Backbone:
């Protein structure tokens, strides 16, 4: 039988992902997906001349509950 790692949170299901911060193996039920949009908000306005140069991007990461609670997200409210 193949050597499969168990989720370090629930210890029941097979781990398919890792926490992006602490690298704990996580199952799909315990992994929390966090999508952060980066780039200046003005670049997402339709008709902006430089929208093609500085496109807004997204970064998708998976975290455990502990790391997600302690995650520092920048405040982008201008």
Residues:
């Amino acid at each position: 039988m193949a050597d499969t790692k168990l989720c370090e949170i629930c210890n029941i299901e097979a781990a398919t992902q890792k926490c992006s911060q602490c690298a704990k193996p996580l199952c799909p039920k315990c992994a929390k997906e966090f999508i952060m949009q980066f780039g200046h908000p003005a670049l997402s306005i339709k008709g902006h001349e430089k929208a093609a140069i500085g496109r807004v991007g997204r970064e998708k990461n998976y975290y455990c509950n502990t790391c997600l609670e302690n995650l520092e997200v920048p405040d982008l409210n201008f």
